[in-house]
């Protein structure tokens, strides 16, 4: 294999691992001790989450799923369908989901130079799916402020959600990073919430600003 071939198979390995590999996880306990361990892969966690929400019967009832899990279902279907096209034979059944077996076989294969362009597309897709999957598992905590933006006067915006459907949201959204207007993109850092609250004519709830 050429040098590019080696780099590409390592990149493919990493991209496959990001989706179906165990994840190293560290957290700090209440006693201040840092502990680490492994978490299930992004793929397995979303699959388990969907199975838990759709019941043991295995009948998917998307309408009864909260919106984020309709996105989870789309995510899983997209991946299962694409990977089955990339590598149709799932190999012997070792108890792992077919997509996991297919991806492991795909990553273990030695690809000819003429396949490199196609593999680069696969790597792009895998990296994108791993990122989107993590976002589904750990959504950014945000709050909507139902008030007109002091900068542009807008109260609501219409924007596409993860599935591309247009939804109505409050223009002012608060995350841990600060408050931002989705209409005019003015931002207020948490240190400026007092000014923002004064402009909105409201009081800051106890505990929002230290
Ligand atoms: Zn604004």
Bound ligands, each once: zinc ion
For the termini, the CA-CA separation is 58 Å
Tally the helices: what do you get?
A: 6
Give the overall form: elongated
* Category from helices, strands and their pairing: alpha+beta
Number of DSSP-assigned strands: 8
The Rg value, from CA coordinates, equals 22 Å
Count of domain modules: 2
Order of helices and strands: HEEHHHHEEEEEEH
Average pLDDT over all residues: 82
Strand content: 15-25%
Strand order of the largest sheet: 3-6-7-8
**Estimated helix fraction:** 40-55%
What is the makeup of the main sheet?
A: 4 strands, antiparallel
Low-confidence stretches: none
What key attributes describe this structure?
binds zinc ion; 4-stranded antiparallel beta sheet; 6 helices; alpha+beta; 210 residues
General description of the model:
Helix 1 packs antiparallel against helix 4. The model has no long low-confidence stretch (mean pLDDT 82). The chain has 210 residues and is α+β, with helices and mostly antiparallel strands. The chain has helices at 3-20, 42-54, 67-86, 98-108, 116-137, 193-200, and strands at 23-28, 34-39, 143-145, 156-160, 166-170, 172-175, 178-181, 187-188. Helix content is 44%, strand content 17%. The chain is elongated. The chain has two domains: 3-137, no CATH class; 143-200, no CATH class. Bound molecules: zinc ion (ZN).
């Amino acid at each position: 294999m050429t040098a590019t071939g080696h780099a590409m198979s390592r990149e493919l390995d990493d991209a496959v691992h990001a989706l179906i590999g165990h994840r190293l996880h560290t957290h700090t306990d209440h006693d201040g001790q840092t502990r680490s361990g492994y978490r299930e892969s992004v793929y397995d966690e979303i699959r388990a989450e969907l199975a838990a929400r759709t019941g043991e019967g295995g009948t998917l009832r998307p309408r009864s799923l909260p919106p984020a899990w309709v996105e989870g279902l789309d995510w899983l279907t997209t991946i299962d369908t694409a990977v089955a096209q990339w590598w149709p034979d799932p190999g012997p059944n070792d108890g792992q989901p077919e997509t996991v077996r297919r991806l492991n076989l795909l990553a273990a294969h030695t690809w000819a130079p003429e396949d490199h362009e196609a593999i680069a597309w696969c790597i792009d897709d895998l990296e994108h799916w791993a990122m989107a999957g993590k976002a589904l598992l750990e959504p950014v905590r945000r709050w909507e402020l139902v008030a007109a933006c002091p900068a542009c006067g807008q109260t609501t915006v219409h924007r596409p959600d993860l599935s591309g459907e247009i939804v109505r949201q409050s223009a002012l959204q608060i995350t841990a990073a600060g408050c931002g207007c989705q209409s005019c993109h003015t931002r207020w850092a948490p240190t400026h919430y007092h000014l923002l609250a004064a402009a909105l004519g409201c009081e800051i709830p106890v505990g929002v600003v230290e």
